[in-house]
Amino acid sequence: EDQVTQSPEALRLQEGESSSLNCSYTVSGLRGLFWYRQDPGKGPEFLFTLYSAGEEKEKERLKATLTKKESFLHITAPKPEDSATYLCAVQARGSTLGRLYFGRGTQLTVWP
Amino acid sequence: SQTIHQWPATLVQPVGSPLSLECTVEGTSNPNLYWYRQAAGRGLQLLFYSVGIGQISSEVPQNLSASRPQDRQFILSSKKLLLSDSGFYLCACAGETDTQYFGPGTRLTVL
Asked: Burial, A25: exposed, middle or buried (Cβ in 10 Å; 0-12, 13-18, 19+)?
């Protein structure tokens, strides 16, 4: 059973063209939702943790938001260096030892 | 903040050969440690996790095993590799918060 679904699978943007990535989830109770950035051949890099609906967090051109069923990663005026795969993961309340369920990621390409 | 080291960075092994991947953590004590595998086009699959020395839990039955001989050392092993063991292996660490931080990974190719 898929608990985390990310869309789109791939996204191509021109530099400066803002857009959003989606992460929808189904868990019995959300403890936390995590966003990571992964460059090719490297380990995921932590970006944000969101804990409750309505929460927002920002870092440079990225802003993450959370509702009861999904999260969005908004990218404002992206640059080529924002190109990467963005991963979403959820942690359920009462999960064993912080177990995370990952989506398959959105591969973002920003061209100049 | 914690730093996670993994080695080797890349590995090419023949089918049937043994495997040992090592992960060490700096900057935190008594962390939860995790081994993941990432196959092309698929999400991260949790393989093992550990809350302390000698305490290992397995998520997926397979020919891999894990050990934690020291507080900040986590080892992934196999006695005989299969073609299907190829992938990108990631070690992760969680300290006092729920956030998992990942190492640089090991690319394993089984031929």
From this structure: buried
